[in-house]
């Protein structure tokens, strides 16, 4: 019997940075600098890949609720 555990993480993402990394807090959000540009969804796709690697979760368990 599995249990569904979920979490919502509020992020402030700065696209177009030199490299992707976590830089701290921005108000009530975790601030992430993202190396991908915010063109044609590249930053969103790269952000999800960054989170997959960072938290070791499968891509199918992630959902981008806002941002585009």
Spatial arrangement of strands, main beta sheet: 1-3-2
What is the 3D form? globular
CATH homology group: YggU-like
Overall CATH class: Alpha Beta
* Mean pLDDT across every amino acid position: 89
N-to-C order of helices and strands: EEEH
Structural class, please? Answer: alpha+beta
The helix fraction, in percent, is: 10-25%
Total discrete domains = 1
Query: How many individual helices?
Result: 1
So, CATH architecture?
Answer: 2-Layer Sandwich
Please describe the biggest sheet, giving its number of strands, its sense, and whether it closes into a barrel: 3 strands, mixed
Low-confidence stretches: none
DSSP strand count? 3
In angstroms, what is the radius of gyration?
A: 13 Å
Question: How would you describe this protein?
Answer:
The chain is of the alpha+beta class. The protein has a single domain, classed as Conserved Hypothetical Protein Mth637, Chain: A, CATH 3.30.1200.10. The chain is built from 1 helix and 3 strands; from the N terminus they run E-E-E-H. It has one helix at about 40-55; strands spanning about 10-15, 20-25, 30-35. A 3-stranded mixed β-sheet has the order 1-3-2.
State the gist of this model.
With 68 residues, the protein is α+β, with helices and mostly antiparallel strands. Helix content is 21%, strand content 25%. The chain has one helix and three strands; from the N terminus they run E-E-E-H.
Question: Could you list some keywords that capture this structure?
Answer:
68 residues; alpha+beta; Conserved Hypothetical Protein Mth637, Chain: A; three-stranded mixed β-sheet; 25% strand
């Amino acid at each position: 019997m599995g249990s569904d555990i979920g979490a919502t993480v509020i992020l402030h993402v700065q696209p177009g940075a030199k490299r992707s990394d976590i830089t701290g807090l921005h108000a009530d959000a975790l601030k992430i600098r993202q190396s991908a540009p915010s063109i044609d969804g590249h930053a969103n796709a790269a952000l999800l890949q960054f989170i997959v690697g960072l938290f070791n979760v499968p891509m199918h368990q992630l959902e981008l609720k806002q941002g585009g």
